[in-house]
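=== RUN LOG ===
request id: a7f3
mode: sequence -> structure
chains: 1
length: 174
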Amino acid sequence: MKKLEDYIRVIPDFPQPGVMFRDITTVFQDADGMKLAIDQMQEAVKDLDFDVIVGAESRGFIFGAAMAYNLHKPLSLARKKGKLPWKTESVDYDLEYGKATLEMHIDAIKPGQKVLLVDDLLATGGTVKAAAELIEKLGGQVAGILVMIELKGLEGRKKLEGYRVDTVISVDGK
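=== RESULT ===
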C-alpha cells in the first residue's frame, strides 16, 4: 500500500535554486491519494472539538471542503485580498518576497465559534498565522491548525506558538 508521501511530486530548484518544491497536485490527481490525504488529516484531529472549518487559500479550500463534507461541518474561506464579494475583515502579513493580505467575510465566523484552520503546507508560517489572527479578529477561537505537510527547516511552527498544530507529513528540508 502506498504512503501519502508517495503521491507527492518533489520538484528540485523550484521556484528558486535550493528549494525542493512539494507538488501536491499529484495527490489530487489520484483518487486513492486524495482519499488517503483526507482520511489521515481527519484522523489527526479526531479528538479536537470544533464548530467550523476554515480553508486557507487555495489548497486549504480543497482539503477543508472534503473534511467539512465528511464531518458535516460548515466551511468558511480565508482568501487573498479582493476575491470576496461582500464586506470583509482583513489581516496583512509578510511573505518571503513581499507582503500579502488575507480576507474573510465579516459573518464567516460567529463570535465564540471554535475553528479548525486547514491548509496544505506549513512553511514559514506567515499565511497560517495571518489566517489564525483573522479568525480571532472575527471573534472565533482557533481550536487547532491542520496542515498536510510541514517543512520543518523553515521553522514556521515558531510563529504558531500557543496554537495546537497537527501535521500529517513532516520533512526536514525547505
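=== NOTES ===
The domain at 48-171 is CATH 3.40.50.2020 (Rossmann fold).
The chain has four helices and nine strands.
=== END ===
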